[in-house]
Amino acid sequence: MLLSLYRKPKSCFNVDDKIGLVPIPNTLRYLGFNQTTPPSGPPGSVSQVIFTEDDSKLVASYKGSNGPGYLAVWDVQEDGSLSAQYTQKALASGGAVAFSMTPIPNENAFLVTDPGVGFN
Question: Considering the entire predicted model, what is its pTM?
Answer without folding.
Answer: 0.76
